[in-house]
Amino acid sequence: MKVLQRLAVLVMLCLPSLAQALPDDLGQQLLKGSWTEREQLASTLASSPDALSLKAAQLWLDGELFVLKSSKQLVLSVKEDKRYRVTDLVSGADLGLHKKRAIKKVPLNNKLRGLLRTTLSLQNLQSPNKDLRREAIENLLGDTSAESLALLNQVQQQEQNTDLQALIATGLAVDALESGTPQEQIKAAQQLGDSNHPVAAQALLAQQANTDDQALLAAINKSLADIEQRRRFYGAIENTFFGLSLGSVLLLSAIGLAITFGVMGVINMAHGEMIMLGAYTTFVVQSLLPDHIGASLFISLPLAFLVAGATGVLIERTVIRHLYGRPLETLLATFGVSLILQQAVRSIFSPLNQSVITPEWMSGSIVINEMLSLTVNRVVVIGFSLAVFLGLLFVLKYTRAGLSMRAVTQNRAMASSMGIRTGQVDALTFGLGSGIAGIAGVALSQLTNVGPNLGQNYIIDSFMVVVFGGVGNLWGTFVAAMGLGIVNKFIEPWAGAVIAKILVLVFIILFIQKRPRGLFALKGRAIES
Amino acid sequence: MTTKLQGGSVTRLLLNDRGGRWFLATLAIATVLVLALNLLVPESSPLHVSTYMVTLLGKYLCYGLLALALDLVWGYCGILSLGHGAFFALGGYAMGMYLMRQIGDRGVYGNPDLPDFMVFLDWQTLPWYWQGFDQFWFAALMVLLVPGVLAFLFGWLAFRSRVTGVYLSIITQALTYALMLMFFQNDFGFGGNNGLTDFKDILGFDLQADSTRAVLFLLSSLALIAGYLLCRALVNSRYGRVLVAVRDAESRTRFLGYRVEHFKLLAFVVSAMLAGIAGALYVPQVGIINPGEFSPINSIELVIWVAIGGRGTLFGAVIGALMVSYAKTWFTGAFPEVWLFALGALFVVSTLWLPKGLVGVVGPVLERWRTHRQQPALKEVADHG
């Protein structure tokens, strides 16, 4: 409330100046006036609530504000060949190319620089927007001049938000560590040990090299150890998160295969192309509805399921049906289908990658603290893959269709004599697996390039996951996908991405030697046939 | 006729192999013909076969040898390897390393000790695994040993723990995929993305010369003939009959007391070595070897050669390789868009309607035609008798 009140007062005080945002002769005054006059102008500009004045002040501070000599207009200029492209500051109009002599930079000295910076920072530090305030404080943390210290001291009293208070305290402690009395230094060193901000560690390290005070050194070392321990902890959490994210991608791409290969025993090499179809469905939906990118994913999901599912049923009815019981032939035929689908996409769209837009609500990241932030799209994909997985489990366990699917895969002849149309169930199961691959394609379109080779990149990984987890076992697929994802991400930091991938492949190849039926092998006589 | 056939072990080998006899005879005649038309007929003549064509045919023959190698394990032992391209590429790399060392100081950087890409990567000394490759005999040995040892290790692990069927196919695919990723790495020491290329000469002969090309073509043809005879000898022997038994009923063969994994392992290793030789002959003819050769699709394309030609016949696999490769060259030249459609359709058609391949279709037709022709003769004999 207090902030709001203060804000209201501030706005009222500044109202008169709003009307005369930028005086017409400002350019003239800035060029010809004395330094004292410029200081006055600077503090007026930088403390004005008007956006244009603030922009002018910021440009002035950055040394990017010019005056066009002929008309005395305030302008921006960009170098083009040997001349300068000049644009009007107020209207943004293009004023053409000018020689260097035709424009003059607005003069700036150290005193003015300090004045501008302090006033501008104060503006932001008192802004009602929390993110702006955070940014302003972060800017001050980097530099240790007396004026920024004064600013920090000033806002420390006013700041209500505890996160920002901590940030300010860190800034003050950094300063105390550098220039305080020995007692203050030790206290600051201890205090910085609790901060997650990179500035804290930097300041501690710098002071560690400079000081030979034993008590201070001990405090610094302890704080550094604390920070290092926390960094390792959050690093592990981050790795796990990346691992889960990779795992959920693997899970999404493999889960359809877990049905067609795992439950039905059909080697579908065109599985990757079903994923690709899903991704292209997203692309088509987005190009048809360019104004509703946010909603496009929700339209794409059922569509992708239908497109990929229908293609799957078609493949099952025309090709795979004739090859049941001949796994190697199925493998070859479906590989042929995958080549045809790839080339079809290449001919219809283009051999190049298509750009699929990430909607607003999926971009950005969730900041937990200075050491840990999670990107939203990965969080969404993790949640989505879990939802798909659980949904699939539910369908297989608790619906009539799922019951028939399980019956047919367990004992085809018996199921048939109980009145289940096995042919229909086969088509349905294959369609379900393919449809889920299509859904996976929608999710993957948000993480990788959408191109004709999208499917190929996932097919080997998908098979590895299913085989590793154990054929015919959805939970095995789940554990294998997450496990491989996490292991991969923990190897990556010290081995590199490609070597990590190779190591995982080699590991699986060796693992299959040991347990040819995967992690969670089904037991019983039926398996041997 | 029979007296002539009993002349040598080779003829005895082909006694019951009518298709093989035709195949080898055609191959030998075609080889001589192509070489004669290339070397003896002047270029202005319409009958002249260009050196480009000779090299292209030599490339096809290498593919034929590779297909033969796969047919030995897939057609006779039931091991569908989706990673046979890896052995081919390893043989190719071994030869490529020799050719690379032969460049000497004629590279772009003119460094007599290091190949160009190592100079580019700022390496100071030759890595240990490149030592010895300046000797042809060592490279030739490695062409056999590297694929052979890899196949032995991989096969020993896989067959011992009874990984069979599609599982084996998928992990062989993973093997070649992993190797591809590895060879794409620049610091792995095999030229990364670009692979090995820019070869100058082999055993002192200029690789660009027509005569060298002709000799390489001849060698490919001889290797194919020798490979065919070796495979035929293997499958005709007692060992070969056990191999077929393993293919048809693995468990039963095991219960009869055979060490199934040993039989499979031998076939796998021999096949990998043949593939390595094919790769080694391929590289000097095309002038480059890069990690793309490891890509899983190459290995799968190889499977379709064998499936189209007819698995379990040896010569069918070679015919399939030659035909599909020629079709690929023609299609990618004339209708590049259509090639993958055609290849995909080939996969589907051959598995659905041609389970025995072209040999399975053409063979019985020829047989009927032959017996039909002999029928009157037999009748005549009967009448007179």
TrEMBL record, chain A:
Superkingdom of this protein's organism: Bacteria
BP GO terms, sorted: amino acid transport
Membrane topology note: Multi-pass membrane protein
Listed GO CC annotations: plasma membrane
Underlying gene: livH_2
Location in the cell: Cell inner membrane
UniProt record similarity statement: Belongs to the binding-protein-dependent transport system permease family. LivHM subfamily.
Listed name of the protein: High-affinity branched-chain amino acid transport system permease protein LivH
Keywords of this entry: Amino-acid transport, Cell membrane, Membrane, Signal, Transmembrane, Transmembrane helix, Transport
Keyword Transport: yes
GO MF terms, alphabetically ordered: transmembrane transporter activity
Tagged with keyword Chaperone: no
Transmembrane segments: 241-267, 295-315, 327-345, 379-396, 463-487, 493-512
Signal peptide from the UniProt entry: 1-21
CDD domains: TM_PBP1_LivH_like
Stretches assigned to coiled coil: none
Automatic annotation (TrEMBL), chain B:
InterPro entries associated with the record: ABC_transp_permease (IPR001851), ABC_transptr_urea_perm_UrtC (IPR017778), LivM-like (IPR043428)
Keyword line: Cell membrane, Membrane, Transmembrane, Transmembrane helix
Superkingdom of origin: Bacteria
Pfam families (alphabetical): BPD_transp_2
UniProt GO MF annotations: branched-chain amino acid transmembrane transporter activity
Keyword check for Transmembrane helix: yes
Localization (cell): Cell inner membrane
Cellular component terms per the entry's GO annotation: plasma membrane
Topology relative to the membrane: Multi-pass membrane protein
Membrane spanning stretches: 21-41, 47-66, 73-95, 136-159, 166-184, 214-231, 263-282, 302-326, 338-355
Predominant location: membrane
Protein name stated in the entry: Leucine/isoleucine/valine transporter permease subunit
